[in-house]
Amino acid sequence: QVQLMESGGGSVQAGGSLRLSCTASGFTFDRYLMAWFRQAPGKEREEVAGIDSDGITSYADSVKGRFTISRDNAKNSLYLEMNSLKREDTAMYYCAAGLMVRVGGFPEPEYRYWGQGTQVTVSS
């Protein structure tokens, strides 16, 4: 049974830091592309950061220089270090696991597994 379990969310003041963790089970973790998504009330879900099986990372422009994604394949775990938090970072954060697939001849990620989410609230 596939499971992704997030932890580490909470309430913090603007400028503070949080570290999110995601523990995976039920699939071959080190073969999967992993990512953190977030969704704020009334807004669409957005990808915050991603890391592939080779450790190559990508970030949304809004979090570049403030957030760091990492993975520990030996522990089947994904992390998101969040620094200099802003009110606009307030959202439910989800970890996701996927594989690259070809759509119309072009590779793109297909996220197949999702966690339940962990709430991050940043106050000023």
Report on this structure.
The strands form two sheets. Strands 2, 4, 5, 6, 9, 10 and 11 form a seven-stranded mixed β-sheet that branches. The protein is 0% helix and 59% strand. It contains no helices and eleven strands. With 124 residues, the chain is mainly beta.
Lay out the secondary structure.
Blueprint: E1 3-7, E2 10-13, E3 18-25, E4 33-39, E5 46-51, E6 57-59, E7 67-72, E8 77-82, E9 91-103, E10 106-114, E11 118-123
Parallel strand pairs: 2-11
Antiparallel strand pairs: 1-3, 3-8, 4-5, 4-9, 5-6, 7-8, 9-10, 9-11
Summarize this structure briefly:
This protein has 124 residues and is mainly beta.
What distance separates the N and C termini? 40 Å
- Tell me the number of strands: 11
Q: Mean pLDDT, rounded to whole units?
A: 97
Low-confidence stretches: none
Radius of gyration, in angstroms, nearest whole number: 14 Å
Structural class: mainly beta
Shape: globular
Tell me the number of helical segments per DSSP (H or I, 4 or more residues long): 0
State the major sheet.
7 strands, mixed
